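Bug #77: duplicate submission created two jobs. Keeping one. Sequence:
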Amino acid sequence: MTGEPAGPDPPPLLDWRDSKHWSHTPRPCRYCGKDTNLRDSKRSPAHKVCAEAALADRAAEAAEAYENEHLA
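Kept job's structure:
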């Protein structure tokens, strides 16, 4: 610890509170295939957990590729 107060938490990648993330028609999630009423930022059916896990995976893959590129 540095003794400095911690800053605010970073904002979430997707704000799921917005009504545009909801549909009255359940459709299969693009990641797991189970029905969901939720829609991602491109209006594709996606569970919150599935979409956020996919974003985290992509970020980790990009970080790994960046490190591999700079270590070579």
